[in-house]
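Exercise: predict the fold of this chain.
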Amino acid sequence: MNSVVPAPIARQPWSMLFPLIALVGFGAMVLFSAAGGNWEPFATSHLLRFLLFLVMASVMTLFGREFVRFAAYPIYAVLLVLLLAVEAIGFVGGGSQRWLNLGVVQLQPSELMKPAIILVLAKFYSGLPPGMTMSWRALVPAAVLVAIPMGLVLLQPDLGTALAIGFGGATVMFLAGLPLRWFVTAGVAALVIAPLAYFFGLHDYQQRRVTTFLDPESDPLGAGYHITQSKIAIGSGGLFGKGFNEGSQSHLNYLPEPHTDFVFATMAEEWGLLGGLAVILIYGLIMRWGLSVARKSHDRFATLLASGMVATMFFYVAINLMMVMGLAPVVGIPLPFMSHGGSSMMTNMICIGTLMMVNRWNNRAPRSRLS
């Protein structure tokens, strides 16, 4: 087989790439249906973005470990500057100030901060002596690194992205070996602070999202419309679905955002429970491969980096699925590799590229030669 298949192709992680390509292709079919049976404006751009970012991910695999470690703090600092620039001169869209207009592209720095916070914390903890893991020196600097971008993103306002940054950071801190009691204490504190945050920290529309989540039927034509229509679409799909390009909820414009946040509901209406289980299975295969990369890593930096990237993708998937099923408030988290949107595709392909990069490190460096 090695003599038939060129080595650069044979050594690619096909156990992840095949499910990923299948998921993106299936997503393009769903977007085709969401546009009423047209490739434009969603499906074609979805596929083109994936191909572009797949090339980017392939280039990322060429980066060496020491270069990535060296670049961690500079990347974090540059993104902090960009987040400050968003507050000063950012482009306002949909009521939020999240983008920088660079002429040829509109950049959303908060999306890049999701994988960047994983990178910088992996660098921090890989350089921390093991004896300090149980001391405040392992907690306070890392907490500051997470809190600053979270605060800047909350000012935009973008609660979903801020939570994603916090989740990724907390995951790396937990895997780095910080005491469990610190996380329990933080959870209890969050429960105590939650009522104050609801009344004094959230914007009016964010408060409505929380109350709608608790009782969507109280305002089915207003704040609860999104969740109500999403649950109708998912439930009406039954076991086998209504058939490809036969979804009435999306085609008749009952389902809001059928191509972005609620693309899973669009899919479930046409492909049913079996389609939904197939999608979840593919995500499981991709993340299982990512966790295997983390387990096989030869040093603390690579392990934390790979684990954190899997956690970031998991957050996207879990929150989106819970959101469209009415199990979590609507926070604007798209479904990876299926939702239409360049920012989401970029972030998740950076995660994939990082995992491919760490996988290449694992294959090239014998464990005995590394600390």
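Check your answer against the key: The two ends are 34 Å apart (CA to CA).
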